[in-house]
Amino acid sequence: MTLLSTRATAAPPPRARARLRFRKEAFVGWGFVGPFVAVFALVFLAPIGYAIYLSLFQNRLIGGTSFVGLDNYGEALTDPRFWDGLTRVGMFLLVQVPVMLGIALLVALAIDSGRLYGKTFFRVSVFLPYAVPAVVASLIWGFMYGTQFGLVGNINEALGVTLPNPLSPSLALASIGNIVTWEFVGYNMLIFYSALKVVPSSLYEAAAIDGAGEWRVVWSIKLPAIRSAVVIATIFSIIGSFQLFNEPSILQKLAPNAITSDFTPNLYTYSLSFAGQQHNYAATVAIVMGVITAIIAYAVQLRGMRKG
Amino acid sequence: MRTHSSLRLLGAVAVASTIALTATACGSDAADGGSAGTSGPKEVAAALEKGGKVTVWAWEPTLKKVAEDFEQKYPKVDVELVNAGTGDKQYTALQNAIAAGSGAPDVAQVEYYALGQFTIGKSVEDLAPYGATKHATSFTSGPWNAVHQDDAIYALPMDSGPMAFFYNKKVFDKHHIKVPTTWDEYVEAARALHKADPKVFIANDTGDAGATTSLIWQAGGHPYKTDGTDVKIDFTDDGSKTYAATWQKLLDEKLLSPVNPWSDAWYKGLADGSIATLTTGAWMPANFASGVASASGDWRVAPLPQWKKGGKASAENGGSSLAVPKVAKNKELAYAFAEFATTGTGASSRVAQGAFPATRADLESKAFLDTEFPYFGGQKANQIFAESAANVGSDWQYLPYQVYANSIFNDTVGKAYVSPTKLSEGLKAWQDASVKYGKDQGFTVNK
């Protein structure tokens, strides 16, 4: 459009020719965005569109494929297995995300304070777990959680105590929260730390002249300055919580009775699709889950930005 | 994981579903068009003469030698043996390939419990016209019942898993405990072992669908009745009740080790004596020899403990067959290979390599029965397995969608292993979930 207007001012043509050129140049514009639109449509819109299309059908072992309209959605919205999973990740979100972001924030502030020896070592070592693939991390923790031959078992044996089984039904979610926290504290710390690095030093100098203490600087300068980074990290974490899959999926092999096939909505979608061959219903659950995630993430973003 | 957008996940699921669904869409035509003309033994012989390529999906290791022998006997035939995964993994791949109408093998290994899922979808060929009928009496009754329905023969039995009781004699001797012959004695032995050494458990069990259904089978239960698309599921029959009552005692008193089968901890437990017995199929010895080599000589084999004193009842656990998918490109050759691998010299060669036969001739051969197992201290274990095979309850049926049902076993029955939920309640919950799935899939369930 900018291109069009600059040309138009250079030599004002008659009306008819302008319209012709407008069409031609509009086409040129499409030429620029075309490659992007094509890729976007192919890898982004088409799969979603196809998932929606799939969700309108039902395929049965007896009777084959038939169009069922919105029946699958009706079923998903009243499916206790889906809602159980959703409630579970909701609880996970309410407890694990504040803990994880709180720790990440503390570490970021500590490193940024400049009062820490071996700052670089500290920063790298806290970030390191993020470099470990989630599957490997879950396996490592899974071995440690073992009450027979794992670390928990060894502690029990060495001290003659009986620690509660971390993979029992009542503790499994907390144990997964522990793994996820371990994995992502470093990642979130880095987001906060990089936001802190761009705070202009003149603000700190001004605070020092005003006689502000370290806590006052944190409260009045650092935290307000990284508010948008906190909002972003929160949104990532919300999405991540709703998508919980790798950790429970790996630990399921170790604790099949505690971590059920509908433990999280994603795990449920997976087992519907691969064990049950219910691809249509799996697509429906995935869409419902996507919409719920988008709504909550958007609400958090609106709220976070409004205050800022 | 945490940085991905939710839409990306949606996309991924959509792509996965796309593949599977497009597959389904094309599949129906291929399946219908596949049954052009009937082939008989003549066509099979002609196909062997003409030659060609047979693709076989199987994880059974003894088939390698069979494939070589087959190629040697029929030089124009080329056998491609592919390991497309074990159990569920292979079935998922197979189901998708069958639905897609392309990429499916000519011959596929399918466990007995899973065969129903393929026959109900009419995705495997009826082998009776090819000449399979003449083998009806060459197989033992358990496997044969699993592969045929009325006159149709959907697969040829490759091996079988009549159950037996494996026990660590060293542990039993050390604590002076009698080897149980009934399940009541088994519970007694479990208590005594655990009391003598709190580290020792009579067995490991974290809830296994295959083992549970097999023991109900042995107890004379018939929780599943399938007649075409008519399915009945009832876990309140006498067999199921008997099983649940006994197993509940073991769970209540925490006499079962919470170790998952096939895990490292499991192999360790079998080796060091902390898991003192194993109730499973006759295919186990090869796994003992390779996975628990250090305990060689400690273990022995005994007949299954009985539900009724003095009984001889047995059941199958595991075992698989060779089936020919309807979409196979060269069904005559496929049948020829399946027949070669499951009967006659093919079967004998596999037995020599350690497979447990489903053929009467091999099962009754003197060489087989007299084989001494060094791992079991020179015991002639095959005699026990053979007797078990002869006593397998013959009218057992699985669900036509047992693969799915087994995948939700731990969601339902598993609760009894980790919470105050009773086993009978767990079985009821499993029944309800299986009924729901069956109805969703268009079966007539419990009507």
Low-confidence runs of chain A (pLDDT<50, min 5 residues)? 1-12
Q: Fraction of residues of chain B in helices? A: 40-55%
Mean pLDDT of chain B, as a whole number? Answer: 88
Largest interface: A-B, 61 and 58 residues
Q: What strand line-up does the widest sheet of chain A have?
A: 1-2
Number of strands of chain B: 15
Strand content of chain A: under 5%
Rg over alpha carbons of chain A:
26 Å
Poorly predicted regions of chain B:
1-36
Total number of beta strands of chain A: 2
Pfam family, one (chain B): SBP_bac_1
InterPro entries (chain B): Bact_solute-bd_prot1, SBP, SBP_1_CS
Signal peptide (chain B): 1-25
Protein name (chain B): Multiple sugar transport system substrate-binding protein
Detailed description of the structure:
- The complex is a heterodimer of chains A (about 300) and B (about 450).
- Chain A is mainly α.
- Chain A has two domains: about 1-55, no CATH class; about 70-305, MetI-like fold (Orthogonal Bundle), CATH 1.10.3720.10.
- Chain A has 14 helices and two strands.
- Chain A is flat.
- The two termini of chain A are about 35 Å apart.
- The relative contact order of chain A is 0.11.
- Chain B has about 450 residues and is an alpha/beta fold.
- Chain B has two domains: about 30-160 and about 320-360, D-Maltodextrin-Binding Protein, domain 2; about 165-315 and about 375-445, Periplasmic binding protein-like II (D-Maltodextrin-Binding Protein, domain 2).
- Helix content of chain B is about 45%, strand content about 15%.
- A five-stranded mixed beta sheet of chain B has the order 2-1-3-14-6, sandwiched between helices.
- Chain B is globular and about 65 Å long.
- Classes of the chains: A mainly alpha (about 300), B alpha/beta (about 450).
- At the A-B interface, helix 2, helix 8, helix 11, helix 12 and helix 13 of A face helix 1, helix 4, helix 11, helix 18 and helix 20 of B.
- Chain B: InterPro entries: Bact_solute-bd_prot1, SBP, SBP_1_CS.
- Chain B: One of its GO terms (biological process) is transmembrane transport.
- Chain B: Belongs to the bacterial solute-binding protein 1 family.
